[in-house]
């Protein structure tokens, strides 16, 4: 029989030590070392029977993975066309963001076509789940709810019901009896997910796992968890805002460029087919510090509003705050505005925000941030039908960005009449129907053009 031994495992990175320590020597985390009991591998290796012989690569027949539409267009878009048979999908997001609501709606759509679905709720009772599904109008005799945290019992339910889809909400509370460590530890999460992946691949069952988010905004548990599953989705958005965004950061069966947009209502999550109109619909008519920029999210362009507020600092040290954009990016652009555009901002409080709760990393927003700050500083509003596009270099030059044609088409469709963009496109974009193009090479030119 295999013997058990005691080791000390870091719950942050999984590094093993022979004795306890206050600080992990691998990742440097403090108070993350936990005692765990593991079993030695049995040295008496049994003879293995091969199910099939290895096949030569040139004889392998290519067949498409069976995809199933969820009937939720935005989710199907993010997943690459629908859920894949035997795939394991990990969904992460902050508490209260709407992960469970989304999965109830997906469950209802799949069950409505006659497929058995097992919903394992480790944090809600069956009665609580019923109240929520009633509000969402999700009701089907093909949905089987169970409140369970033991993996061995969950496997027994799977064998009994033979579902086509399983939802585990959440994976951090599931544990195995043969491991002595507490639920949520690295050993428990790794073993639980390994067992569920084996079931998914063996029986062709699609499994959705819900993962908690830490205060740093990353999925709780070992990073290995994201490497183990087939697809990783992040559910983002401000908790007290209606808008939600689903981003794909890993997908073995499709692209990772797609993004889904939702509106949280009392009846659940509703798809947003045209997010541009949502994000700029409440824009003030004549207010300084507001600029619209088209960004690329996945395969489509989305118009968002960049807002800035510049006011004289009342104390010695000026305050700089950002929401939805990187703080270091704004600090860099403030330095460019001071050095290259001559704006005296060192004694000013500066606040920059993306309206609607989106988090932007597209470099094309650089010019919009600069113009929004300059507009607020000079207290001169930008015309409502103007958009700006471009990356700003340290020398104050306006650089190119990708997908310029797609961005302009989206802006023209919404009703914008004028665009300020990098001068390098002069020869390639002479004829854009419905929108006037202003070519610029430096940040000074943009300020003189829009803030006279």
What's the CATH topology label of the largest domain? Answer: Rossmann fold
* Secondary structure tally: strands: 23
Q: What distance lies between the first and last C-alpha atoms, to the nearest angstrom?
A: 83 Å
- Determine the strand fraction and express it as a percent band: 25-35%
Task: Quickly give the structural class.
Answer: alpha/beta
CATH class of the largest domain: Alpha Beta
Indicate the CATH architecture of the largest domain. 3-Layer(aba) Sandwich
Determine the CATH superfamily of the largest domain. Answer: P-loop containing nucleotide triphosphate hydrolases
In DSSP terms, counting alpha (H) and pi (I) runs of 4 or more, how many helices? 11
Outline type: globular
Strand order of the largest sheet: 8-7-9-10-6-11-12-13-14
Instruction: Give the overall pLDDT as a whole number.
Output: 87
Largest sheet: 9 strands, mixed
Give the helix level as a range of percent: 25-40%
The domain count comes to: 3
Q: How would you describe this protein?
A:
Helices cover 26% and strands 27% of the residues. The protein has 452 residues and is an alpha/beta fold. The protein folds into three domains: 4-39; 67-273, P-loop containing nucleotide triphosphate hydrolases (Rossmann fold), CATH 3.40.50; 278-450, Ribosomal Protein S5, domain 2 (2-Layer Sandwich), CATH 3.30.230. Helix 8 crosses helix 9 and helix 9 (366-378) packs across helix 11.
